[in-house]
Amino acid sequence: MTDRQHAVSSSGRHPERGLDQHAGFDAIVVGAGFAGLYMVYRLRELGLRVRGYEAGDDVGGTWYWNRYPGARCDAESLAYSYSFSPALEQEWQWSERYATQPEILRYIEHVAERFDLRRDFRFSRRVDSARYDAESNLWSITTEAGDRSHARFCIMATGCLSVPLLPDIPGLDDFRGERYQASLWPHHPIDFTGKRVGVIGTGSSAIQAVPVIARQAARLTVFQRTPNFSIPACNEPLDPAFVAEFKRHYREHRELARVGKISGFGGLEAVPREQAPAADSGVLLSDRELETILEQYWNTGGARFIGAIGDTLLNERTNTLVAEFVRERIRRTVHDAETAEALSPTSHPIGTKRICVDTGYYETYNRDNVTLVDVRRHPIARITANGVETEHDQYPLDVLVLATGFDAMTGALLAIDIRGEHGSTLADKWANGPRTYLGLGVSGFPNLFTITGPGSPSVLSNMLISIEQHVDWIADCLGFMQRQGYQRIDADAEAEAGWVAHVNEIANATLFPRAGSWYLGANVPGKPRVFMPYAAGVGPYREVCERVSANGYEGFRFA
Ligand SMILES: Cc1cc2nc3c(=O)[nH]c(=O)nc-3n(C[C@H](O)[C@H](O)[C@H](O)COP(=O)(O)OP(=O)(O)OC[C@H]3O[C@@H](n4cnc5c(N)ncnc54)[C@H](O)[C@@H]3O)c2cc1C
After folding, report:
1. Which residue, 34, 281, 418, 449, has most beta carbons within 10 Å?
2. Are 459 and 160 in contact (CB under 8 A)?
3. pLDDT at site 276
4. In this structure, what is the dihedral angle of CA atoms 130, 134, 135, 137, given to the nearest 10 degrees?
5. Smallest Cα–Cα separation from 139: which of 458, 473, 449, 412?
6. Which atom of ligand 1 is nearest to the CA of 461?
């Protein structure tokens, strides 16, 4: 035992759990969010011995870490939930159209308890290395706490948005007030009453947090680099009669969502409130027809707005019309013309950065205690002990909130020293951008699977749909291997190259590559600019995966 390991076990930090020392399992799962929990459930069904490792001290993933005020999902609760257990979906009661973070976390905890999933996990364990040994055909996993274990299969359920980014601003650590990061929020409530609060960032998390903080704080200053498009959530308590009726048809709703028939936007909606999309193309519509459709979608709320017109993400002209509709709404809502202008996105086509969904975001800028600082025009020079300094002004603050996003999709995978065959590292392999086969396997890294990996729809969908599909696919594949007596699976290099080319081809047919988005890695200095998710939608993607498995897992090699 090393000193470090000894220190951990003898300090009693995890006395009840102990360290895994040279422990052997059939499969190791990294991460205890929605993906890791369901993966463990399916692996157990296959009779496999499983070990899960999770950096946090409990289950929940995104919903464990992101406890900032106003945090909630922007997929409808009835759709943003597991479908694998009909009993679970019938018994769980969601209270609102879009569930809050505490409610989603309660749900995940309930699932963990109901299916006794915690017992296979070790918490407060960050996996720092995963190495494949060709001779034994085993993966060796180590954690920062000192665990060492090995398994035939290593399954990464590490999340697409689980590595928070700090802004690169001089003096960040000099600030003497309270500092919080949206994605690492404390587990106790923060009281902003009477305080001068600054929020850096205007992505999804800030857009949810700003209206809530503004209601408490004495003064709120929002530092914005890039404005994002946001659509009103029109959140509301769920009507019990609607829910009862919905639950009677849960299976049908789920099936439609799986094949991408609900909402043009990856199944974020529970039920289509109108036929979606309402029109195939914006260019064939008169101004009045377009306005009527968009108005209707705007008034019913949610990210489905982006799917109202079928070619919004494909056709520049349609996109401009839709974007202008939203900019006009911003101008109508925000009283101060200069603030409205600053809040109106013009640097990217609408929908090419993750569309935000809000409750009263733009209205918040009409409050006397709220100021927007456009840091494109007035860059932040430094953070001082007392607040933020731009080139023109000083903003004394008691509290600084950072909502500056994530190293998306590849961040959590590359934070682990993953080595495949011949000791080759994933970091080297992905030096010019991620390369996977179907977002599930990586050639040269046998018996390694990635749930919602780059090259799959993942963040362009309701993630629960994508997670369940991947977990089911992996579990089915392992079942196939058991039946065939195979011990090793690896993606074929040629199949992988073909898939990477196809993912790029699909992305290039859309407007997505036009935005400097986190989908492209543009928010991380030095990260290769490659469009990472698969943009053809969950329906076509599922068909590809089903075809691959029906054809004996074509594109994979077994031994
Ligand atoms: C604020 C926010 C709001 C979101 N809202 C929506 C939404 O409305 N709809 C939607 O579809 N998606 C949404 N998402 C995306 C969300 O991440 C997914 O929906 C889903 O929760 C992902 O589940 P997961 O299990 O794949 O990953 P995560 O929930 O991210 O879980 C991954 C887990 O792996 C752990 N981990 C990572 N690396 C290691 C390591 N090396 N060792 C040990 N543990 C590790 C992490 O600690 C984490 O707990 C949102 C994301 C954020 C951040």
Report:
1. 34
2. yes
3. 56
4. 70
5. 449
6. 11
Residue 223 has phi, psi (to 5 degrees) of: -100, 115
Q: Name residue 417's amino acid.
A: D
Exposure of 71 in the CB half-sphere (CA atoms within 13 A): 21
> Rounded CA gap, 472 and 504, in Å?
26
Q: What per-residue confidence (pLDDT) applies to 259?
A: 85
Place of tokens 């950072």: 402
**Lowest mean pLDDT across 126-140, 255-269, 407-421:** 255-269
Mutate to test the pocket of ligand 1, among 80, 161, 183, 407 (most ligand atoms within 8 A of CB): 161
- Which atom of ligand 1 is nearest to 74's Cα? 8
- Phi, psi (5° rounding) for residue 396? -65, 135
Pairing of strands 399-402, 178-181: parallel
Q: What is the mean pLDDT of the chain?
A: 93
Whether residue 412 has its Cβ less than 6 Å from ligand 1: yes
pLDDT at 3 over 50: no
Q: Answer yes or no: is pLDDT of 22 > 90.
A: no
CA distances from 534 to 450, 461, 539 (A): 14, 10, 11
Peptide bond into 457 cis (omega under 30): no
Nearest one of 268, 205, 208 to 457, comparing CA atoms: 268
Cβ(340) to ligand 1 under 6 A?
Answer: no
**Is the C-beta atom of 61 inside 6 A of ligand 1?**
yes
